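Appendix C: a fully annotated inverse folding record. The material below is reproduced so that readers can follow the format used throughout the book. The structure is listed first as tokens, followed by the designed sequence.
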């Protein structure tokens, strides 16, 4: 019931963003600060429309239209490695607004559907992997399912399986980056120091040994500071393990001088039109970050935060990381 309420609320807020878009453009015309917005995706597949149970999915045609827009927009699409230098004051492209494309979890549909589209438009992305799942021949078990998603899993099993090492190597050869999303998708801040270290440091070693390259980017499972998924202890562990940047699910843009271990992102939903996507990319929806924080302070999260073999949780920005 609460998922349905959140979805209806999202749609109402979306109309507000659309209505305020012309006023935002006018205000933004006089603003000269540089900003980086990091887009957050999970799945790219033609699944049944999301209802009470979110799949964190964007339809293939919608994703292609979004990437085509980015390629022609004049915005700089950059990598997380470049953002790390930019946060410290180094230059980053010509455009005032920069975009980073990220994917969490590591579904095979990222390779089957998203990667070819990214390659077509010559856009780089970062794919955050749950390293304990790489190459496993079973669907991710930290997500929520319903009859429609179970039916699609039966019809298209590859779309729901984790990426394999050969797929990751091919995606790296195409210019994409690979980062860690922990070993088992647990909320970090509530774990012991040893468990946190195992999740962040060992997952880094797993990726580096399999892909024979240095990994410096991380994405927090669930990723909400309000709900206690990250704190100073987790930042310290990431720093000691050798990560340079870390993405949260907190909504908003990133500016020079901000904490590189608490990067904000903008989730992209299955029901976003191309105009909605454009609003998010240029910043007209940034104010929703405050609304999301307020929601989380008012309502306890309604999903589990610890990974279990039979867990039934979801990590999908405003709708599920709450």
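Designed amino acids, in order:
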């Amino acid at each position: 019931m609460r998922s349905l309420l959140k979805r209806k609320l999202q749609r109402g807020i979306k109309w507000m963003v659309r209505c305020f878009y012309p006023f935002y453009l006018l205000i933004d015309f006089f603003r000269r600060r540089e900003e980086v917005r990091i887009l957050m995706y999970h799945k790219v597949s033609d699944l049944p429309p999301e209802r009470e149970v979110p799949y964190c999915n964007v339809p293939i045609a919608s994703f292609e239209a979004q990437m085509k827009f980015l390629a022609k927009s004049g915005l700089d699409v950059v990598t997380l490695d470049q953002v790390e230098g930019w946060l410290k004051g180094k230059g980053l492209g010509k455009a005032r607004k920069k975009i980073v494309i990220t994917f969490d979890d590591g579904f095979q549909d990222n390779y089957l559907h998203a990667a070819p589209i990214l390659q077509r438009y010559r856009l780089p992305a970062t794919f955050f992997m749950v390293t304990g799942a790489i190459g496993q021949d079973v669907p991710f078990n930290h997500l929520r399912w319903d009859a429609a998603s179970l039916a699609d899993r039966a019809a298209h099993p590859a779309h729901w399986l984790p990426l394999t090492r050969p797929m990751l190597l091919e995606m790296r050869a195409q210019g994409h980056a690979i980062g860690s999303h922990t070993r088992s998708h647990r909320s970090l801040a509530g774990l012991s120091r040893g468990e946190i270290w195992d999740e962040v440091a060992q997952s880094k070693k797993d990726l580096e040994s399999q892909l024979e390259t240095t990994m410096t980017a991380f994405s927090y499972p669930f990723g909400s500071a309000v709900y206690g998924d990250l704190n100073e202890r987790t930042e310290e562990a990431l720093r000691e393990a050798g990560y340079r940047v870390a993405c949260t699910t907190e909504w908003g843009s990133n500016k020079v001088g901000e904490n590189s271990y608490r990067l904000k992102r903008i989730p992209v939903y299955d029901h976003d039109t191309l105009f909605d996507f454009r609003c998010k990319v240029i910043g007209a929806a940034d104010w929703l970050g405050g609304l999301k924080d307020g929601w989380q302070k008012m309502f306890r999260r309604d999903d589990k935060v610890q990974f279990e073999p039979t867990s039934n949780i979801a990590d999908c920005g405003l709708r599920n990381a709450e």
